[in-house]
Every structure is written in structure tokens, then in C-alpha cells.
Amino acid sequence: GSCAETGLLECGKQIHAISLKAFLNSDVYVGSGLITLYSKSGKIDIARSIFSRLPEVDIVCWNSIIAGSSLNSLERESFDLFNIMRGSNMLPTQFSYATMLNCCAKQSLSSQGRQIHAQIVKEGFMHDMFVGSALIDMYCKCGNVEGGREHFDAMPMKNIVIWNEMINGYAQNGFGTEAVHLYGCMMIEGEKPDEITLTA
Known about the structure:
Elements: H1 2-6, H2 9-21, H3 28-40, H4 44-53, H5 59-71, H6 75-87, H7 94-107, H8 110-123, H9 129-141, H10 145-154, H11 160-172, H12 176-188, H13 195-199
Helix pairs in contact: 2-3, 3-4, 3-5, 4-5, 5-6, 5-7, 6-7, 7-8, 7-9, 8-9, 9-10, 9-11, 10-11, 11-12
């Protein structure tokens, strides 16, 4: 919640203490918020402890602990948790897949990225903007700019995040001419650049 976003760990600790006294520590909504709070504050051990003590976990709790592990550079743990989640018949959401693609991008794990991509196709999240931008980012960070462009072209709708990912992907891989050309295409399409576009 707002405590996590503003980095107010002390505020979060107080809410945690109140929730324990009010027996809300088993509430999945409170639990997922606390997992996110402690993960963003670098206290992944506390986040893990909260997750493991929840009597029932929903997809939001799973997404929180998977994303929290990735945020703390524990990509292998994110993969393990993702597989455990799938094994427990919990269906991943677009946020689950985007987090896993981000893990692949950070570690340049192209083969795992392609496996996640195949699952995304099977689950029908191919045209989701959140997943789409993560797919483009993953392929480009793994050095497969063509794969990123292929997915970019397949997106039926493109927001500024999608355009930025592809322009940035070209720029980071040394394709300056293509980045400039795509920027021009974006302008023709009527999409206004933002500060991220201009730094790419």
C-alpha cells in the first residue's frame, strides 16, 4: 500500500503490530500488503515468514512474494515459487507472468523466457499490455531484438510503454537507426513521447 510506496517501514511495522493484535494476520488482503511492504523495504525474510504463516493464500499473495523475491535479486527463488504456485493449481495472472519475464530479462535467461512465453500463449495473455511490454523487454535484454520486434508488431494495440520498450530495446542493442525510425513511426501514430522515450 501507500506505506510501501513511500518507504515508511515504521508505519508498516505499526500496521503489522495492529493487525496481529486484531487477529488480521491471517487475512490475505492484509498479508499481501505486508509482504509487499517488507519486500520493498529489503526485509524479504519477514515477507517470507508472513507468507508461510497465512492459512490460505490467494493469487495476490503469491504474486506479492514472487515479485518481492525478484525485487530482492532472488530470481531463482521467484522461479521456484512460481512453479510451486502452478503445482498447487493456482492459475497465474498477467502480473505473475510479467514478473517471471522480468526475472528472465534480469538474468538474460532466454530459454526460460521462451518457455514462459509459450505458457502465456496457452493461457491467452498474448495481447495484454502489461505482459506485452515485459515480453519485449525480456527478448531485447536477452539480445533477441528480432523476437522483441516480432512481438511488438503482433500487439493489436500499443500504449506508450510498449513503444518505449521497443525503442529502448533497439537503443540498448546498438540499433540506433531503427530506434530513431520507430520513434518517427510512433509520432505518426499519434502517440506522444514521455521522459522515458526521450532518454532511450
